[in-house]
Write a structure and sequence with these properties.
The complex is a heterodimer of chains A (310) and B (361). With 310 residues, chain A is mostly helical. Chain A is built from 14 helices and two strands. Chain A has one domain: ABC transporter involved in vitamin B12 uptake, BtuC (Orthogonal Bundle), CATH 1.10.3470. In chain A, helix 1 runs antiparallel to helix 10 and helix 2 packs across helix 10. Chain B has two domains: 84 residues, no CATH class; 258 residues, Orthogonal Bundle (ABC transporter involved in vitamin B12 uptake, BtuC), CATH 1.10.3470. Helix content of chain B is 74%, strand content 4%. Chain B is built from 14 helices and four strands. Chain B has a two-stranded antiparallel ribbon. A two-stranded antiparallel ribbon of chain B has the order 2-3. In chain B, helix 2 packs across helix 12, helix 3 runs antiparallel to helix 10 and helix 5 packs antiparallel against helix 6. Classes of the chains: A mainly alpha (310), B mainly alpha (361). At the A-B interface, helix 3, helix 4, helix 11 and helix 14 of A face strand 1, helix 6, helix 11 and helix 13 of B.
């Protein structure tokens, strides 16, 4: 039950959440609350699957999944950055669009599978040395390369945000766009780039679901994970490093119902399926109880910036 | 600077309507290109959509049946939005309302029809209201972000109904199918003019919410709180109580939708009872600028879009998801068009041309 295999599976279940959470962190750091995560994940999931299915190339599948997510984000960025539309409604519209898009494109992919050759690309690869650590090695360092890509992305984003000048500029924009503007940081360019990058990461998160996790195309494959990712951003205090822990915790909650089936614990699986959602609520309430400056959202989050309004 | 953006002073109603219509037309053109890409004649498709939604008395009735939950749910969420409380939880509130109403429908069907339906109505209200109070309490007490909480509660409600449907409430006479028993006749809303009387509830609620938001003291307090918490506090408004009250009403009204859909349309409880109404209603509330009269109009627009899309689905073999895509495209354009009601784009042609010339050298 709660064994090494369980923790290993929790990591795998957490990877789509990790990518989406990182994408949303980088988006929100630019001062934009994009509630279209679910939609962008679905766009990435379906395009990744379609491209992988047609070309049999895992790399092309990942590339196009990221592009699909970024294109979704581009619609959002144009609306909210250039046209200063309401961010909440724009994000919701993007989710509706992504859901419709995935359903539309995915109609002919229902129940399709990838070839063995394709799946071989995502086989478990043990990292020499680290993978030999008892227990931890098997849990963390014996995975497909997509999982390692997730680790690396989180760390690179953390370094980027906290240890580079560009990361500092980005945070300045999210905190106080007027001051950043006065320091002649090109705000619009930064916002566009990071919203697009966020979308690409969400697209990759969706692609992990359709290409590796499931890996058969099914309708509404994300099942609300995009929304959990939005909550995980708050949980992790907008910090990419903490997002790793959050994503894996929720990965565990995601699979616990399934794992407990047929064990002595006689609670319906459907009740356990509530776990990730209930846990999100509990954690958000706890986070709001201990308000600290360190875990605060970017100050200018979801406020459109308009130079002439100053 | 080749172009700059300035804030417009108040613009006239006529111009606002023109910009709105312009964005709808632009959306239809883009969607038309998409249809043309699928080798379909967009004009034929649009005409078929209209025929499918308002082409006959029966189809108009069907469209109205789609519009009823959209109207009522958007009224519900509008009350919360007026307070700048992002209640994305209408889906869950509808499900819990349907669950509560179904409890009475399944267990008290011996009661006289009118009394049973009345009990179900209030049960639906309470189910939705409870689902509304929870995020309201956290927000009012500790400032917890309500957007995510209400959203997560949608999934909790959904899993709850799935649990009932596959578990304790499964109809033993359904040959193992995971479905509930159909309601007894007593628990089904009667029809008037070919549509279940949910439409009367929708009309009454529209009038009620209109007066509540525009004329009542509580409605005014909600609007003030939405504008500024500081002003509200200085004006002596009890913020905690106002948030709770608004969400009881908002969630409760959404819960009534659950009762209407379970009793009037599905005649049982299913996990698919909302059909995404909770999300579409958010869009409608925003499109209608939180004004009940405009929201009713927008609800009909969306009902026509949904009903028309399901018609072209069979007539042209277009995926059911095309409705969602069309919906989103319309939304993108309306969202974008808002820019032109608020700002004016001034393009400095001489300097733009000069710059292009310089670049060309």
């Amino acid at each position: 039950m709660i064994t090494v295999a369980f923790f290993k599976a929790a990591i795998i279940a957490g990877i789509p959440l990790l990518f989406a959470t990182l994408g949303e962190i980088i988006t929100e750091k630019s001062g934009h609350l994009n509630l279209g995560v679910e939609g962008m994940m679905l766009m990435g999931a379906v395009i990744g699957f379609q491209v992988g299915y047609t070309t049999n190339s895992p790399l092309l599948a990942l590339l196009f999944a990221a592009i699909a997510g970024a294109l979704g984000a581009l619609i959002y960025a144009f609306l909210t950055v250039s046209l200063r539309a309401n961010q909440v409604v724009s994000g919701l519209a993007l989710t509706i669009f992504g859901t419709g898009f995935a359903g539309f494109v995915g109609k002919s992919l229902m129940g399709m599978k990838m070839t063995d050759q394709f799946n071989y690309f995502f086989r478990d690869l043990k990292i020499p040395g680290l993978g030999d650590i008892p227990y931890l090695g098997e849990i963390f360092f014996n995975h497909d390369i997509f999982v390692y890509l997730g680790y690396v992305t989180a760390i690179v984003l953390g370094l980027y945000l906290y240890n580079t000048g560009k990361g500092l500029n980005l945070r300045a924009i999210g905190e106080n766009p007027a001051a950043a503007d006065a320091a002649s940081i090109p705000i619009t360019k930064y916002k566009y780039l990071h919203i697009l990058l966020g979308g690409a990461l969400c697209g990759l998160g969706g692609a992990y679901l359709s290409l590796v996790y499931v890996p058969v195309w099914q309708e509404n494959i994300t099942a609300g994970r995009g929304w959990i990712a939005v909550a995980l951003v708050i949980f992790s205090g907008w910090n990419p490093y903490k997002a790793i822990a959050g994503a894996f915790l929720f990965g565990g909650l995601d699979i616990i119902g399934f794992r407990l089936q047929g064990t002595a614990i006689a609670i319906s699986q459907y009740i356990f399926d509530m776990a990730p959602y209930v846990a999100t609520i509990v954690i958000l309430v706890l986070v709001s109880l201990r308000k600290s400056k360190k875990n605060a959202p970017p100050k200018a989050l979801s406020e459109p910036y308009f130079r002439e309004e100053r | 600077m080749q172009f700059r953006i300035v804030i417009k002073s108040e613009i006239g109603k006529k111009k606002r309507v023109l910009i709105f219509l312009g964005s709808i037309i632009a959306a239809l053109i883009v969607s038309g290109l998409f249809l043309a890409f699928l080798n379909l004649n967009p004009f034929q498709v649009y005409i078929a959509m209209l025929q499918g939604s308002v082409g006959s008395v029966y189809r108009i009735e069907q469209t109205i049946i789609y519009a009823i939950p959209l109207i009522i749910t958007s009224l519900g969420v509008a009350i919360a939005f007026k307070m700048k409380f992002w209640n994305i939880g209408a889906e869950g509130q509808i499900l819990m309302g349907a669950f509560m109403a179904s409890y009475f429908a399944l267990n008290y069907s011996f009661l006289p029809r009118f009394i049973l339906l009345l009990i179900m109505f209030f049960a639906g209200f309470i189910g939705g209201a409870v689902w509304g109070i929870i995020p309201a309490f956290f927000r009012a007490k500790w400032g917890t972000n309500e957007t995510i909480i209400t959203l997560m509660m949608n999934y909790v409600a959904l899993k709850w109904v799935v649990y009932l449907q596959y578990g304790p409430w499964k109809d033993p006479n359904a040959f193992g199918f995971p479905k509930l028993a159909n309601f007894a006749k007593n628990a089904v809303l009667p029809e008037l003019f070919g549509v279940h009387i949910g439409w009367i509830i929708a009309v009454l609620l529209t009038i009620f919410v209109y007066f509540f938001l525009n004329r009542s003291k509580k409605g005014f307090e909600i609007a003030v709180l939405g504008e500024s918490a500081i002003t509200a506090r200085d004006a002596g408004i009890n913020i905690f109580r106002t948030i709770i009250f608004a969400m009881v009403l908002s969630g409760g009204i959404c819960g009534i939708v659950g009762f209407i859909e379970a009793s009037g349309v599905e005649q049982t409880l299913t996990k698919d009872i909302t059909g995404g109404v909770g999300y579409t209603a958010i869009i409608i509330a925003w499109l209608g600028a939180l004004k009940p009269q405009w929201m009713v109009l927008a609800s009909f627009l969306f009902a026509i879009l949904i009903q028309g899309s399901s018609y072209i689905q069979s007539a042209f073999g277009i995926s059911a998801y095309s409705a969602q895509l069309l919906e989103a495209i319309v939304l993108f354009f309306v969202l974008g068009s808002d820019f032109f009601t608020r700002y004016k784009l001034i393009i400095d042609w001489p300097s733009l041309l000069r710059r292009t010339k310089e670049n060309g050298k």
